[in-house]
Amino acid sequence: MTSILRHNLPGMPPSVSPSSHAVEADGLVFLTGQFGRDLHDPEAPLPDGIAAQTRRTLQNMRSVLADLGLDMRNVVSVRVFLTEFKRDYGEMNQAYAEFFEVDHRPTRTCVGVTQLVRDALVEIDCIAKR
């Protein structure tokens, strides 16, 4: 049987849902969805606008990956959830592209949803390969 590691990372705020920060199995690392909260002040207001929230969300993802000894180049698949798909898709893509080198872009699915935690505009999760 494959061993499964559940990561609850010291120094990271607790997940807003009953979940681990990440779960690892067979060299794959599955990150819980991230949103634009400040990891050092989790109750602070979210940044204004989709670009700022996308950047903060991906900075949070990068921080979780770093705590696991990984970086954005290890990411193989991403899911993006937007509450205002038509309005925010283009601007989210511009901010998103800043975080992935052209030759190391993961696969991605992007969907519109009705609402996210704390009225976030975007949530992003990923799968990385160790």
In short, what is this structure?
It is built from two helices and six strands, in the order βββαβαββ.
CATH architecture group name: 2-Layer Sandwich
- Report the oligomer: single chain
Return Rg in Å.
14 Å
User: What is the number of helices?
Assistant: 2
Largest beta-sheet details: 6 strands, mixed
What is the β-strand count? 6
CATH class assignment: Alpha Beta
CATH fold topology: 60s Ribosomal Protein L30, Chain: A
* N-to-C SSE string, H for helix and E for strand: EEEHEHEE
Mean pLDDT: 96
Backbone structural class: alpha+beta
Q: Mind telling me the CATH superfamily name?
A: RutC-like
Calculate the terminal CA-CA distance, rounded to whole Å.
19 Å
What is the molecular shape?
globular
Helix content: 10-25%
Neighbour order of strands in the largest sheet: 1-2-3-6-4-5
Q: Which blocks of ≥5 consecutive residues have pLDDT under 50?
A: none
Number of domains: 1
β-strand amount: 25-35%
